[in-house]
């Protein structure tokens, strides 16, 4: 029996930040953090889907867009997010 798929909705900023973090996770020695080999399958699948959905990853100004997304998602002093 095939398992039903789960859909997760993210804003573009959230997806950008998550994609960057997953890329850094996969490229560093953080594999010690992910100690269950089975966890890598969904990590790679999520990362691949984000890459397909975020063409800005390949734009020359990606670093600027990434920093802007980080700024918008960082909580303000009152705990709310910047609009």
Principal-axis shape: globular
Q: Kindly report the average pLDDT value.
A: 86
Span between termini: 44 Å
Give a short account of the largest sheet.
Answer: none
DSSP helix count?
Answer: 3
Low-confidence segments, given as residue ranges, are none
Total strands: the figure is: 0
If you compute it from the alpha carbons, what radius of gyration comes out, rounded to the nearest whole angstrom?
A: 15 Å
Helix and strand run? HHH
- What share of residues is helical? 40-55%
- Relative strand content: under 5%
Structural category is mainly alpha
Tell me about this structure.
It is built from 3 helices and no strands. It has helices at 12-27, 37-53, 62-73. It starts with 11 loop residues before the first helix and ends in a 10-residue tail after the last helix. The model has no long low-confidence stretch (mean pLDDT 86). Helix 1 crosses helix 2. The chain is globular. With 83 residues, the protein is mostly helical.
